[in-house]
Amino acid sequence: MAGQDLLTDEVVSEHLTRNIQFFGLESQQKVSGSYVVVIGLGGVGSHAASMLLRSGVGRLLLVDFDQVSLSSLNRHAVAMRADVGIPKAQCLKKHFSSIFPECQVDAKVLLYDSSSEDEILSGNPDFVLDCIDNIDTKVALLAACVRRGLKVLSATGAGARVDPTRIRIADLRESTNDPLSRAVRHRLRKDYGIESGIPIVFSLEKPKARLLPFKGPTGEEENPSDYQIVPGFRVRIIPVLGTIPAIFGQVMASYVITQLAGLKVQTEAVVNLDVDHYEMLHQRLIEHEESLYGTSTEVLVDVEEVRYIVKELWHGRSAREQSAKNVGRGMWRSVNELILVRWDRTKPASVSNLILLKFKEADEHESRTLDDVREKEPEFFKRVTSILEQAELDFGL
Which pTM does this prediction carry? Predict the structure, then answer.
């Protein structure tokens, strides 16, 4: 049986009786007649796929190039120790056959890229779930879905978070405090001209930890690239509380199921406080660039990226202030004295080349060369360079 016919079976109908009571028979038939592709089957994707299955989606395509590892058992939906070493896609398919055998489950042990795009995205899926944590692959997949006119829901960073109450669904342009979605948004706009229109699941919570250094078999810190299974994929460790990616996956499944059933759900709006301050600093940057260079064409940041630069990099104060005396709302008392300027005048005004200074400091900075700053203020030069390098890492530049 396939699609809507699934519900004519007494066992299947009883399995899905609570869904039928919730949606109504006709809407549940839409769910059971749907085809969903899930790409990335780790902590987020495995839980999303599992609940799609349990909710009666009639056909699933599960895609992941990686294998189950011992360290993934703290967050995977179904994997057991006996599954360690098995491809994640095949692991899920095996377990799914005993949970809801009527679902048509296809498993592909594949890395998504341009060569596998058609194999993965053909067949007119009703929804694509992006549960990938690699920026290059994620951006390529999202751009392909937009190009093909496919509905897609994307998961952002679930690692290093602890607060489930801050998880939200919103348009990509509205995400905050998430380095992964920030970098994806930047790349989509830069490489494909895509600025919005992609729903994402993200957390308003700032990550509680960063990537841990990679240690090889000797216990010494080593070059992670020497151990990459696939070039470009991280091998350093993201600390993960297993409950959070599981909740991300459940949120994704809930969103998709209600969409497939045709149930209208009004998601809670993401309120960005103090946005006027960021808009003012963005406009001030544009006017300063036009005054200094005769054009603002090399301003490569939008208001959301200005938020990141001002709040995350410089904490709302001049780059020359080392103390955090103005934190939170109080820091905006001095906003009228601040301006974003290029660190290196020979490079565009990008996320990794803008510093926040007071007006007099900005005038002085722009009258000097970087070589002069490096020679006369080595500690200041080193500190700023380090912060801007972090921006490059956050945005995958």
Answer: 0.73
